Amino acid sequence: VLMMVGSILIQGCQYIVEEKLLGSYYLSPMKVVGWEGISGCILWACLLPAFQYIPCSSDICSNGWIEDTRGAFEMMGESAPLIIFIIANIFLVGGMNGLGMAVTKYASAANRVTLQQSKTVIVWIFFLIYQGGGHEDFKYLQLIGFLIVLVGVVLYNEIVEVPILGFNQNTKSAIEKRRLAEGSTEENFLKTDLPNDATDYAQSSPKAYDTQRKYNRLKNHLEH
């Protein structure tokens, strides 16, 4: 359980850092994914040889070692379908991460997490239908769990607003409506209250970047 919670925290931190980098610099999503892959390959190329010789008696270990790299290569050498599966997995995961990075850049990390929930549901439905290895038996608790996660993500990302108990008073759309009513939108602020060079700096941003990201970059530029 601790390992699972730790992995979720690390993944969350990764998404936050990615959104920060993509929002602050003009980076290609696929290039970011590529560099992440290269750094990961370098890291594991250094760690796997060491893990091969560290004894481990836990059930999660491989043949008595933390990682049995030699055994993995032996299995690949004996199974052509396994090699095909690994190659396909590399391209599919790379494409998935690239699309996810694009969502992070042009929308937000929260939207990326929302879309990932649909991926989990699709995989679950597939293995409910599939009768081969890995087949899942339908369980009501799993369905309830998916629904709870989905509803939580939808509400958190304000895809659906709940108009009771004031829950819809501090959503992004409600705040924006109040700003428009007060005549103090960020766009007007950039046009009227900042120096000309600062305004030009904001206008140089790509159209894909929304006003909030323009404002954040502009603020950092003026402070430094």
Describe the structure.
With 224 residues, the protein is mostly helical. The chain is 71% helix and 0% strand. It has helices at 2-24, 29-51, 69-78, 80-106, 109-129, 140-156, 172-182, 186-192, 196-203, 211-223. Helix 5 packs antiparallel against helix 6 (140-156). The protein is globular, with a radius of gyration of 23 Å. It starts with a helix and ends with a helix. The model is unreliable at 193-209 (pLDDT under 50). Keywords: Membrane, Transmembrane, Transmembrane helix. The chain crosses the membrane at residues 82-103, 115-132, 138-156.
Fraction of helical residues: over 70%
Distance between the termini: 43 Å
Structural class: mainly alpha
Element-level helix/strand string: HHHHHHHHHH
E-strand count = 0
Number of helices: 10
Shape: globular
| Contiguous uncertain segments of 5+ residues | 193-209
Give the rounded overall mean pLDDT: 76
Q: Strand count, sense and closure of the main sheet?
A: none
Transmembrane segments: 82-103, 115-132, 138-156
Keywords: Membrane, Transmembrane, Transmembrane helix
